[in-house]
Specification:
The structure is a single chain. The chain is of the alpha/beta class and 427 residues long. The chain is built from 13 helices and 12 strands. It has helices at 3-14, 46-59, 83-92, 104-111, 119-125, 137-150, 199-213, 234-242, 294-306, 337-348, 361-364, 372-378, 404-423; strands at residues 37-41, 62-66, 74-78, 97-101, 155-162, 168-174, 186-190, 225-229, 310-318, 322-325, 357-360, 383-389. Helix 1 (3-14) crosses helix 3 (83-92). The protein is globular and about 65 Å long. 48% of the residues are buried. Mean pLDDT is 90; it is low at 3-25.
Amino acid sequence: MSLLLAALIFNSLFIACLTAPQEHVWTDEVVSYSGFQLWSITPHNKEGREFLEKIQRDYELDVWQESRSGNGTVDVLIPPDFQPELKLRLADAEIPYLVKINDVQTVINNGNANVSISDEKVKARGYKMDWTSYHRLSDIYSYLTYLANSFPQIVTLIDIGWSYEGRPLYVVRISSSASSPDTKPAIWIDGGIHAREWITPAVATYFIQQLVEVAGNAELSTNLVWYIMPVMNPDGYEFTHKRNRLWRKSRSKAALFCRGVDHNRNFGYKWGGLGASRNPCAETFRGSAAFSERETAAVSKFIQGKSTNIKVFITLHSYGQYIILPWAYDVLYPTDYDELLALAENAASKFVRFKYSVGNTAQLLYPSSGSSADWAKSIGIKYTYSVELGDTGTYGFVLPPSLILPICEDFFPALKVFADKAATMTH
């Protein structure tokens, strides 16, 4: 190792905790990602992967995506201060990388413009929501309220609790029959469990709009009840709009200098195992106990009350274009895995523009204990899936608004596959 490389490494490690911005830092300052780059790194063997894991720990890097499938690339956010020495370290280890985003803040600025809808248009249709831009929580909640008021025969807005910062947690119930919802099979869909994954509330609200406002889709609610929660993490979602676009967790007080729990490590099945951190400052912090967060506790209570009727459970995430199956806590398979796989592959075949890979969560991506999908499977919901939406890494979490509608429209035929299966299931 050269003296220059050694000096650069020492310097980088010395300033690691002082370098802007880390996702876990407790700050109310507006975070800028100017000069930050997204690198796609491809270790070709076990030694390379271990070397990359050490770099991630040493520099406290934000890993956006990692995959065990295909070429096993890892997408990592690289602060400007670390770029010179990391280039040298990767070259020294003969590990190739590609700069996918040259300046993350520029992409954020281009994709986070204020929604500009004329007052006349809002007045005419009653809401600001559209699917050509990302919306604040107030726009989403106003749209849900509008639907409940305008379509009371099929839409019920259910308040299942409050977030840590006091925001309501809303689930939309959609069903067109007069019979009791307890006599019909149901589908659960949620988005926004990770705050920075803005495409997920957009897709969830698009599903709601299609089910409620498009007459041609009325049959999808005739024999089914839909429970759709567009934003499971409203505090984090608002924080990404106001302070830190790449914030992932909740906003509860995890430790003296760190906030937030990873909701998708906080559910009560195999809680605290592989892929979940006990470090309150880590992005995958599991929380102090299973269901320690108000949001996960409220969601689990609501779902348990409907679990005998919920036949399909879909939790929306980004990114990578995967439909992934239990179990997530380790590379293990439920006894009915082949049935789950067949339905997922059928749904995946309906995508045209954005092709989705299908398989076991821990095998395709990485172990993640305490996940909502594993918990849902553990309480008896048969068909449980996590869906990692588009794209495959060109933009990642900072997906431009121009891709919202294409991703939504591409998904809807696949959603019908899940709906058809659920509608045929009895107790």
